[in-house]
Specification:
Helix content is 48%, strand content 14%. It is built from 18 helices and twelve strands. Helix 4 crosses helix 5.
Length: 471
């Protein structure tokens, strides 16, 4: 039937379809329990892996990286088994794809090892703790993130020389925390769950001893003081009255530009990049960004798994004296996309940004994305220095690492509960320790595989099959 203007009315949505799969808490938990029949929790313990050449997989992951930086990547990975693990997300994605997995899909961090958790600031300037690296984020089976995080604790504990029994206790504490917190989050009001923030203060409350609490408080205090303004003097120098990013080759350096034409082309490219980036910000943050003027850009080599990808830092100034450091980080195809449905986003920077916004309890106000049009490379943008902090888990004793496992388990459970269906995950996890036992078995077995792969890389470096630069 036409309306008064002769226009057919818009079709009304079928509310039963619109809300299909949401249902009551009990119904959604039952869906999770039903998922156990397809993949029993005990099957998550399986670590019988397909035969593969780890060097070939690593070399495949180097395609598109800056060639001269790849030896630095291998040099960092060969340092120890945990450093290798940090750079070997592609290997674990291959391995997980060949193992039993749940069909409960959630937005994954994609690289949820313990060094990819840390401190960051909310827009209200609260110090929060949670996952802080989303380069590989993609929807996938929730257990993949849990298994990657659990294996990282087993590897870190093994590297510290902790007994196998302690390794088991650490992983058990992590998985038990994850399961119990998911049960709590499944019963929360949806808005309360979305607003929930796991703060640094909450993390300090978990500390097992006064000594651990004091050490963690020092890291929190240091993060609180970290800002673009606080690091300006040692991160930049004044040249002819203008600030310029301080070089530290081969890790921080400016693109060599020989002619005036090259400089003009480079400047046009960067300004087009930021003009496109600006459009990905909300209106009020766009107004804030417009207060700043771009003064310098330099290449910056970061991380372990990210080494060889294109990464820049940009210095902006407001009123000629207030600095803002932004990081431009290349967003490549997620290593998970070889085994899971590909990203829905045309720009991988947008994939990273939206994954981060879904998973973090609060995100950087300058978080956005863009593209370098001359290369076609996707990037995401965030503040480089803004109340960020990381814990030196290499110095943790068993008790310290156990408390850290509780913090990481809590943070991961909240991230997944916020981005997915906590009731369905809770139904699958259950109340018994079946899930915990399976994750424990898997993590210790995978730690052995990781060490074997690390040894293979060392042998390849020694034989000259790959080049590695030790810094």
């Amino acid at each position: 039937m036409n309306d008064a203007n002769g226009v057919l009315p818009a079709a009304q949505p079928d509310l039963s379809d619109l809300f299909a799969g949401r249902g009551s808490l009990a119904a959604r938990m039952q869906l999770g329990r039903a998922a156990r029949k397809k993949v029993p929790r005990t099957r998550l313990a399986i670590c019988k892996l397909k035969k593969r050449d780890p060097i070939a997989l690593l070399e495949a992951s180097n395609v598109g990286r800056v060639p001269e930086l790849i030896p630095i990547r291998y040099g960092r990975m060969v340092a120890n088994p945990f450093a290798f693990y940090r750079g070997a997300a592609a290997l674990m994605a291959f391995d997980l794809a060949g193992l039993p997995r749940t069909d409960i899909i959630v937005q994954l961090c994609g690289d949820a090892h313990l060094a990819n958790f840390g401190l960051f600031a909310s827009p209200e300037r609260r110090i929060l703790f949670g996952p802080n690296d989303f380069d590989e984020t993609l929807p996938g089976p929730f257990d993949w993130d849990v298994r990657r995080l659990a294996a990282s604790f087993a590897i870190a504990a093994r590297e510290r020389g902790f007994a196998a029994s302690d390794q088991r206790k650490l992983v058990r504490r992590l998985s038990e925390t994850f399961r119990q917190r998911m049960a709590e989050f499944s019963k929360m009001d949806v808005l309360d769950l979305w607003y929930y923030q796991f703060s640094a203060a909450s993390m300090l409350d978990i500390a097992d001893s006064a000594g651990e609490r004091k050490r963690e408080a020092l890291v929190v205090d240091k993060a609180r003081l970290q800002s673009s303004r606080s690091v300006l003097d040692h991160a930049a120098v004044q040249v002819d009255g203008k600030y310029r990013i301080k070089e530290n080759p081969p890790l921080v350096y400016h693109v060599p530009l020989a002619t005036q034409r090259e400089r003009r082309q480079y400047d046009d490219m960067i300004r087009r990049f930021f003009a496109d980036y600006r459009l990905t910000l909300s209106d009020e943050r766009r107004a804030l960004f417009d207060r700043y003027e771009l003064v310098d850009v330099a290449i910056r080599v970061v991380g372990v798994g990210s080494v060889g990808t294109r990464c820049y830092e940009a210095l902006f100034m407001a009123d000629g004296e207030w600095p803002l450091f932004l990081q431009l980080k290349e967003a490549r195809t997620s290593v998970l996309e070889n085994y899971l449905p590909r990203s829905q986003y045309a720009n991988h920077g947008q994939r990273v940004v939206n994954g981060q916004r879904l998973l973090q309890s609060a995100s950087d106000i300058f978080l956005g994305w863009s593209k370098m049009h001359h290369t076609g490379s996707d990037f995401y943008v965030r503040q480089l220095r803004d109340m960020k902090g990381a814990f030196d888990f290499a110095s943790f004793d068993v008790e310290d690492l156990g408390a850290y496992a509780v913090s990481c388990g809590t943070a991961l459970a909240h991230a997944m509960a916020k981005a997915g269906d906590p009731a369905r995950m809770c139904g699958y996890l259950g109340k018994s320790d079946a899930f915990d036992a399976a994750i424990e078995t898997f993590a210790l077995a995978y730690a052995e595989r990781n060490e074997a792969d690390w040894s293979t890389l060392k042998a390849a470096v020694k034989a000259g099959r790959v080049a590695a630069i030790r810094e």
